[in-house]
Amino acid sequence: MAAQRSPPRARARERERPGALASGNDQVHSWALVTSHALDIAWGIAKGSVMLAVSFLVAALCYFRRLHFHVGHRLKWWSGYLQRKFKRNLSVEAEVDLLSYCAREWKGDTPRAKLMRKAYEELFWRHHIKCVRQVKRDNYDALRSVLFQIFSQGLSFPSWMKEKDIVKLPEKLLFSQGCNWIQQYSFGPENYTGSNVFGKLRKCVELLKTQWTEFSGIKDYHKRGSMCNILFSDAILEYKLYEALKFIMLYQVTEAYEQMKMKKVIPSLFRLLFSRETSSDPLSFMMNHLNSVGDTCGLEQIDMFILGYALEVKIKVFRLFKFNSRDFEVCYPEEPLREWPQISLLTENDRHYHVPVF
User: Fold this and answer.
1) What is the rounded distance in angstroms from the CA atom of residue 265 to the CA atom of residue 288?
2) Do residues 243 and 188 make contact, with C-beta atoms less than 8 angstroms apart?
3) What is the pLDDT of residue 15?
4) What average pLDDT score do residues 269-278 get?
């Protein structure tokens, strides 16, 4: 039986169906391309935005890092400036623990470091020195260490200063004893060479008398300490006081020399002084030794004897570099004429001194 033939419309729809399928596939492909292209564009935009944001963040971080560094540097500078401006620059510092100071200053295993550590331990355990005050290192530090202790302890005037007006001593040397050479006196690093030496010396000695009188009249230890902090943070006043001490030493040397010329008995320390070629008389002592003090050198051992004698104090010095020898402890002068008050110093090299605190 012959197969039934399809109607004409059905055959036409069958012929049109492949074209429709192809057209639908093309549309899907087009939409896919459009979508892919749109996604590519969107990703490119997003990627660019992300890269721009990352670049901005990196730039911002770098900027703020630099800003933080700059601000921190400026704050540190201003902090240091304000501290220097408003904090007293003490030439005798506050007390610090003796053994802690030693551990900080003398590290290592060198023979000298070991010697110093043993010397500091000796001071701590045997001599009961618990703290130390560091003294500014310059060519006045021996005078500074001695005067600081005289004022902080409230010691009174030496007996001979109570009998004489020390303010008039410069004129006394010139007019009574004919010491015209005193016009060559040098004021430490100032190197003053003017004609008003006597006027400058008088002001220095007058300041010493005023300050000494004030400190010796204060009975409260803490008040003297506060006043010392004020005085020993004023470099100008300090240097005037030290020049006054130098002149007091020169006056005592001149007095001893005059007594020696009159065949009177003088302390052995002055005989030793005048036996040296460089200090055979007051003028050579001033020119060769005293004028350099405060400028290019500090006090020598013979000068320490004279200083102790002039101020009527027994200066006991612990010479740490001489530990385990008979010169570890020395006194200036060795045999004080009377029961003078004692002050103590410590030194690591006979050039710079510190103040021990018992």
Assistant:
1) 25
2) yes
3) 54
4) 95
